[in-house]
Amino acid sequence: MNRALFRSMLRLNGRTIASYAFGSALYLWLCIWLYPMIADANLMNEMLKTMPENFLSAFGLEQGIQGLNGFLAGEYYGLIFVLILMIYCVLMATQLLARLVDRGSMAFLLSTPASRARIAVTQAALLVFGLALIALLTTAAGLLGARWLVDTSDFDVSAFLQINLIGFLLFFVVGGYSFMISCIANDEKQALGISGLFTVLFFMANFAANMSEKLDWLHNVTPFSLFSPSDIAAGDVNVAAVAIGLAAAGIVFYALAVVIFKRRDLPL
User: Fold this and answer.
1) Is 13 helix (H, G, I), strand (E, B) or coil?
2) Which of 61, 151, 243, 267 has the most CB atoms within 10 Å of its CB?
3) How far is it, in rounded angstroms, from Cα 244 to Cα 21?
């Protein structure tokens, strides 16, 4: 990795990364702050029982509201957290390579003593650094919010940490294939379109699989099926096995991205 390039790119993209991190943390605090107002879980669960089972499953609410963990799993990690990190991974992965190639800025980087592999590794490191910062700040906000904003004893710190770990690793994979696509594409719009299309299709496949048992096979074709916050909160997921699988898949995508960028002909 080239440290000078990393610092330079961090200065260019630091404000964007910080906006995602603080936006995620503040939204999580809002959910925690709202929790006491609907803390009558029995009343909430009675209302949820009136809704279609497939609808609840699609939004990760099939377990009902099981304390603060269950509430956050359904209301924040089931959709908002996923959307924030989907947008971050696709946009940042495109900006860090395909945009530089498309606009000719990559020629300047390649004129430096840094090799192509070091440039690609540095850009990938910045993408993962930003993702880790968002996940860490969100995790810290959840831990502090549960302590400061609500008076509850039903917050399971271990389950909360597991939800954030698997969430981070899921988007380690999404960032990995988006970065690989960014290494392949010559055009910024093309990279953005392809990685965005794959990500939306994977997300919709998981949503459809949760909605209908006939589409349950779609769980096998999307990494999003491995991130089920409600099941993690309920202790129904083998977190270690899922974490190892996602980490391995992400490493493979980043390694392929570096190899592809090192060997390809660039239109500069």
Assistant:
1) helix
2) 61
3) 25
pLDDT tens digit string along 140-155?
999 999 988 887 777 8
- Under a CB-based contact definition with an 8 Å cutoff, are residues 178 and 93 in contact? yes
CA distances from 168 to 19, 49, 138 (A): 17, 31, 10
Q: Roughly how many angstroms between the first and final C-alpha of the chain, as a whole number?
A: 23
- The CA distance from 42 to 62, in Å, is 14
Residue 247's Cβ-count burial label (10 Å; 0-12, 13-18, 19+) is: middle
Angle at 63 between CA 60 and CA 66, to 5 degrees: 110
Rounded to a whole number of angstroms, the CA Rg of the chain reads 20
> Rounded to an integer, what distance in angstroms lies between the CA atom of residue 158 and that of residue 217?
30
Pair of tokens at residue 181: 């696509």
Q: Output b/e per residue, 214-244; b: 16+ Cβ within 10 A.
A: eeeebbeebbbbbbbbbebbbeebebeebbe
